[in-house]
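#struct-help
A.M.: can someone run this one for me? Single chain, 189 residues.
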Amino acid sequence: MVEKTKARIMDATRIRRVLARVATEIIERNRKLKNLVIVAVKPRGLAIGQRIARLIKDLEGVDVPVGLLDITPYRDDMPDRPQQSPLDDAALGFSVVKKDVLLVDDVLMTGRTIRAAMDALIGRGRPQSVQLVVLVDRGHRELPIRPDYVGKVLPTSHRERVRVRLKETDGGEEIVIAEPVKIGRAGKR
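D.P.: on it. Structure tokens below:
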């Protein structure tokens, strides 16, 4: 599908500032920083989570572990989804039991990805708390899920797409709104 960029919402500088604000909010709301762990939804959640962990380290001197969560077996939009495999902490890198978990993703829309991530997370043990961090909240909820920390609230239509590009995953650094473009055949209208 071909897309046309409709609007550029954030550049690298703005993304950096937003993540600094989010990291500060996390520090202010969490007294026990040493009990924090970051669980990222791949692929861009990992880059965002690592950046937040670095900011917390720079500001407070506390190392916050960052792990990657594979939610594929828990998604409800895949008719031929793979069988759930046995869960182990080795895949994540740490235990979430009795931890304050920051669940991190790039864009929140319907809430279905986060529901799958929470199922995958709870399957690994019972955290003390789970807080949701998203870079962009674009609305259109189908499930009652609300982020605790939001970089930018960005109302969009269902037709529009929010594209987050980060240097770690995409080589560039921006957030844009794109729209599908119909390509007609020559001579047809």
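A.M.: thanks! Residues 12-29 form the longest helix (18 residues).
D.P.: also worth noting: The chain has a mean pLDDT of 91.
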